[in-house]
Amino acid sequence: MESTVDLIIFALLISVAVSIPLALSHDNAEIITERYAASFARNTLVALLNTPAEQFGGFSYRFFFNSPEFRVPFIESFTRRKLDHKTIAQLLAEDALLNLRLTIDNSKIGPIWSGQEMDEKLRIFLKSLLDNLVGGRFGYRLRAKATPVEVPFVCLDFDLVVENLYPARAKLCSETLLLSLPAAENELTALLGSPSVAGSPWPPVADPIIEISLELWSR
Amino acid sequence: MTLHVGEDLLSTLAAVLLLSLLLAAVVDYHQSYLKRQQDFEDFNLALNTAETLINGALAPPDKSPGLAAISPERLENFSRILFSRGVGAKVEIRTLSDELLYVQKQGVPWEDSFYLSSSVSLPLALLDENGSVRLCELIVKIWRK
Q1: What residues of B are in contact with residue A6 (Cβ under 8 Å)?
Q2: Is residue A149 assigned to a domain?
Q3: How far off is chain A from B35, nearest CA to CA, in Å?
């Protein structure tokens, strides 16, 4: 009977020894998955930002007249902006400029120009595009964030989030690209037009940038 | 020393059975471990190959960041170098609608003597000859001797 007990202990010891490389191999699987996800995210971001909207069925939106009474063909064609030729990077930059939110002394003033139609359409466009390109393999969260002006009491910022995290389990990676915003800081300052803002000493920082990050999540 | 036939025989049988089970489990675990390790290495190789292609053989001559251009000569050279190191590769570039734009095979005629290792696909912004950009997918399949 004693020898059986010894044998069971021996078997247990060997099982533990065998399970160590198996656990290591599980770690390897995670490392490889994360590496692939990071490479996929990086290439997706770079490829997306360089590809024109016409590759994904085109992008257009109505500006100025957005109420239903103006939805007659003549006015619609007149007010519709077709931006098929623009790359996703250019669309994001334009959306950021048209939808900058002003915050003064912690109270949000809202977008300083009316570009909400573009913002809504761009979110839908990006969601459909990413669902098609990434959604089959990973959960995702795309975030475009810009803080072109930030001084005491006044902040101009832009934040766009498009995500599909259902059913996502764990974050695999996050890749970020920086785009320069095609507007000089003094132009943004002048557009604010407030004497208190205009009188403030703007910090001499580099060109405003948009930070575009893509997170991938395992499904 | 006394011999208890029933008890000792049962113990021996139990010991042999346990040992056999353990041995079978260890062999099976070891084989699956080796197979997984091989799969990881192959997938890693396929991913490295795809990344090297995007950053090297597919990079346009003017080095436009983030864009790719098909250069059959450079792709062939790359595949030949890979093949000389015992790795067969098939490089495909497909549009998102699955239209095949380019295929490059090296080592595939000897596919039978190789075994399919792994394949990787990555998105790619492909620059056409007329200057327009298309979103495509780069698919790299590799075989090893």
Answers
A1: none
A2: yes
A3: 10
Q: Which of residues 39-58 of B touch A (CB under 8 A)?
A: 40, 43-44, 47, 50-51, 54
**Tally of domains in chain A:** 1
The ipTM, to two decimals, is 0.81
Task: Return the structure tokens found at A149.
Answer: 């002006």
Task: Determine the structural domain holding residue A186 and report its residue range.
Answer: 87-217
Residue A120 maps to a domain: yes
Per-residue pLDDT of chain A (219 residues; tens, 9 = 90+): 666 677 778 778 877 776 776 676 667 788 888 999 999 999 999 998 889 998 888 888 877 655 566 566 666 666 777 888 898 988 998 888 888 888 887 777 766 666 788 888 999 999 999 998 998 889 999 999 987 777 777 888 888 999 998 886 889 999 999 888 766 666 666 656 655 444 554 444 456 788 999 999 998
Is A155 contained in some domain?
yes
Fold of B41-144: Ribosomal protein S3 C-terminal domain (3.30.1140)
H helix runs in A61-180, sequence order: 73-79, 88-98, 116-133
- CB-based burial label for B120 (10 Å; 0-12, 13-18, 19+): buried
HSE at residue B6, side-chain half, CA atoms within 13 A, is 0
**Contact across the interface for B133 and A40, Cβ inside 8 Å:** no
The encoded tokens of residue A173 equal 């990676």
Q: Which chain A residue has the Cα nearest residue B44?
A: A32
Say if A106 falls within a structural domain.
Answer: yes
Instruction: Indicate the domain borders of chain B.
Output: 41-144
Substitution target from A46, A54, A87, A128 for chain B, most B beta carbons within 10 A: A46
Closest CA relative to residue B44, chosen from B118, B137, B143: B118
Provide, as residue numbers in chain B, all residues whose Cβ is less than 8 Å from the Cβ of A4.
11, 14-15, 18
Q: Do A46 and B122 touch (CB under 8 A)?
A: no
